[in-house]
Structure formats: structure tokens, C-alpha cells
Specification:
Length: about 325
């Protein structure tokens, strides 16, 4: 969602990320090799995963760039600084809220919704969501954290106005939580893992609120080239195969990679991966009407919250254009 000053921030992002990621998807240095600039959140999980499974020998170039959230990835796509973004269902909703999205959702990655939590710091007396009334709660705006915090408050008989909601990036939120300037934090992934290592307590979970649909989005420019579409479908197929490779007896190897990236014990990384896959296998799938409808429910919820000023029809920024090459890549 755009606010005053957004244009300046986006211009700055464009300069920074373009310098790190190179130009738009297409021929590299005047040659015939396609280059895809792909985003990652938290750490470059997919890049490491493909390397582990020996599936990183792509006939095209992939430049991975790290962001703090899927919302930042979509901002980079909007700015022309990134070709492909991975996110939950929420960031594309806000990236398209101005009615002029220059991207499309092209695939769905089913995955775990563990480590999506509201936490209170070590030593806090807060043990439930209901106790957040009148408290200052940090959250990552326009992400899954925003969504499940709203839903958990509603389940506890509270509204958004019953808390002082403080939008914070994950790293700043952890510092604020430990420093006592916020009473709780709604976040995900590495931030939650780190907070628990520092003694934080889980007081609410988005595990059963979130759909488990994580979206791959590509810029319209990327989708405009046949070679780029083929490369993207192949990359997503490789990611799906890499997860299958890990599940096929390579969990311990993968846990070591995860542990090194997230600074947690290997045993903990292994347990989290196995619990996550038991909840929901990580698999890449083509676009379906059901997945589109799931995101529409999310958009409608944010409209009800007042975070979206206008109704949004999400099917306008979904496309099945990648379905045929993706299904071919998934079955090969």
C-alpha cells in the first residue's frame, strides 16, 4: 500500500537493488543466456537447497537477492529491480492496491505455516492474546504477521484498536522486544526462531489461520519473453524436485545447511523441518481457481480491517500463463 513519500523510497530502492541485481531479465551481456533476478526472504534458502540437491546447474543465470520480507520483494518487482518474488498471499495484495500492478502471480508453493507466531519477551507476564489489550504490539506490516495478528485478536474478543500496533521490520522488532519498547511481536521465520532462543514465549500462532499458500510472482516484462517463461518454469520445477530430494533421506544434510544459515542447533533445524513437512509437504503447484479464491479471502479481510481503502479483485493479477511449462517441468 502506498503512502506519502512512497515514490522517493521506491526510487531509492530501485537504485540500490538494481546496482546489486543487474538489469531486467533477459540476455546477459549481449549473449543468449537468460538471467532471472529472484528474491528470497530471511536467507537464500532456495539457492542453498538447489545446490544441496545438485540442481543448480541451470542453463540460465539466477541472481538471488535477499530481502526482509515478501513485501520488500514485491516493491523491488514494482520498481523494475527484481524479476521474480516469493511471498505469502498478503504482499501481492498491497503491491496491487494502487490498481496498477506490473506483475502476476504465476505459481503456488504449498508449505508449512509453523514459526508464524505472536511472542512475548523473556520475563513477561503476558501469556495470552487476550492480555494484549492496551499493550504495544510489534508486527511486520502487510505480511502474514499482520493477517494472523488481526485474526488472533478477533478470536480473543479484541479489535485492532484495542492494541497499539507498531509496524516494524523483523530485526528492529527483535531489538524492541528485548529492549522493552514493545510488549509482544507478531512475526515469522528466523525472527521467531531467534526470539525463542533468547527466551521469548509463544502466546499465539498463525499455524491454523494461514492457508499454507506461498506465491511466486513475476514481472510483466519477465512474462513477456518466451525464454524467460521457460527459465522460470524450469527453476520452479527444480525447487519442487529439491524439496523432494531432501525428503528422500537427505533431511540431516539439509538441516545442517539450515542451521548454519539461521544460527540454531542442527537438531532443532531438523526437528522444525520434519514437523513442517509433516504438517504440509513443500510442493510447487500451478495456478488454480481455488488458490486465487484463497487470496481473495485475504484481500477481503484486509478490506474489512480498513488496511485496504478500496475493494480488490485479486484475479486481475493472477495468470495461468506459466501453467503449461510449469506442469511439464514438474512432471519431468
Amino acid at each position: 500500500m502506498r503512502r506519502a513519500g512512497g515514490a522517493l523510497a521506491l526510487a531509492g530502492l530501485l537504485v540500490v537493488v538494481l546496482s546489486a541485481c543487474g538489469g531486467p531479465a533477459g540476455a546477459e551481456d549481449g549473449g543468449d543466456t537468460v538471467t532471472l533476478r529472484v528474491g528470497a526472504t530471511g536467507w537464500k534458502r532456495e539457492e542453498a537447497l538447489l545446490k544441496l540437491a545438485d540442481l543448480d546447474d541451470t542453463p540460465y543465470q539466477v541472481r538471488w537477492s535477499l530481502f526482509q520480507g515478501g513485501d520488500k520483494q514485491l516493491e523491488a518487482v514494482r520498481a523494475g529491480a527484481l524479476d521474480v518474488a516469493s511471498s505469502s498471499e498478503i504482499p501481492p495484495v498491497f503491491a496491487a492496491a494502487d490498481g496498477r500492478p506490473n506483475f502476476k502471480v504465476v505459481a503456488v508453493q504449498r508449505g508449512t505455516t509453523l514459526n508464524q507466531e505472536v511472542i512475548a519477551p523473556k520475563g513477561s507476564d503476558i501469556t495470552s492474546i487476550a492480555q494484549l489489550k492496551g499493550k504495544k504490539v510489534g508486527y511486520v506490516k502487510n505480511t502474514t504477521a499482520h493477517y494472523f495478528l488481526y485474526d488472533l485478536l478477533k478470536q480473543a474478543g479484541l479489535g485492532w484498536d484495542d492494541i497499539t500496533a507498531a509496524p516494524l521490520e523483523p530485526d528492529k522488532a527483535l531489538a524492541a522486544l528485548n529492549g522493552g519498547s514493545i510488549d509482544a511481536f507478531a512475526g515469522y521465520g528466523n525472527a521467531i526462531i531467534t526470539a525463542r532462543q533468547q527466551g521469548a514465549r509463544t502466546i499465539g500462532s498463525g499455524k491454523d489461520i494461514l492457508s499454507g499458500n506461498f506465491l511466486w510472482s513475476a514481472s510483466d516484462d519477465t512474462l513477456g519473453g518466451a525464454a524467460e517463461r521457460e527459465a522460470l518454469a524450469d527453476l520452479l520445477g527444480r525447487i519442487d524436485k529439491a524439496y523432494a530430494y531432501v525428503r528422500d533421506g537427505h533431511e540431516q544434510e539439509y538441516a545442517k545447511v539450515v542451521a548454519a544459515a539461521t544460527h540454531q542447533p542442527v537438531e532443532q533445524a531438523l526437528e522444525e523441518f520434519e514437523e513442517g513437512e509433516a504438517q504440509r509437504k513443500t510442493e510447487v503447484r500451478a495456478v488454480t481457481a481455488q488458490a486465487t479464491a484463497s487470496q481473495q479471502e485475504v484481500a477481503d479481510a484486509f478490506r474489512g480491517l480498513g488496511a485496504l481503502k478500496q475493494p480488490l479483485t485479486v484475479s486481475a493479477f493472477w495468470t495461468d500463463r506459466l501453467n503449461f511449462p510449469l506442469r511439464k517441468a514438474l512432471s519431468s
